[in-house]
Write a structure and sequence with these properties.
117 residues; mainly alpha; 73% helix; 0% strand; elongated
Length: 117
């Protein structure tokens, strides 16, 4: 957990473990596309849990929108980086993508095993 001197006292520090657990759960249960997931992150992480300030979240959202690729995953990785540096970005990215990867892997194995669906 990296301290942020610009954060207001109204916002709580978060451990990397809690952040990774949050994104593992969101990756497993989130649905509705990248915009819906980004909105869920804002409600959960900024408004309810207060782990990020609105400015931190919007900075991450802007950077994620500028880069090509999956918006929600890039935003999650940025938020992991904001709290845990390179290690945080890596762990949050893996946690967010892992559930989808495992679902596709299992479905692929079933498809091969049963010669189609």
């Amino acid at each position: 957990m990296l301290p942020n001197p610009t954060r207001s006292r109204d916002y709580r520090d978060v451990t990397l473990t809690a952040l990774v657990a949050y994104f593992l759960r969101l990756g497993a249960t989130g649905f509705g596309g990248p915009i819906a997931l980004a909105g869920a992150m804002e409600r959960d992480l900024v408004d309810q849990r207060r782990w990020f300030t609105p400015e931190e979240y919007l900075r991450g959202l802007a950077l994620a929108q500028l880069a090509p690729g999956p918006l929600a995953a890039q935003l999650a990785i940025y938020l992991g980086w904001a709290r845990g540096g390179i290690l945080g970005a890596t762990l949050v990215g893996i946690a967010f993508v892992l559930p989808s990867f495992l679902i596709v892997l299992v479905l692929s194995m079933l498809y091969i095993r049963f010669h189609g669906l």
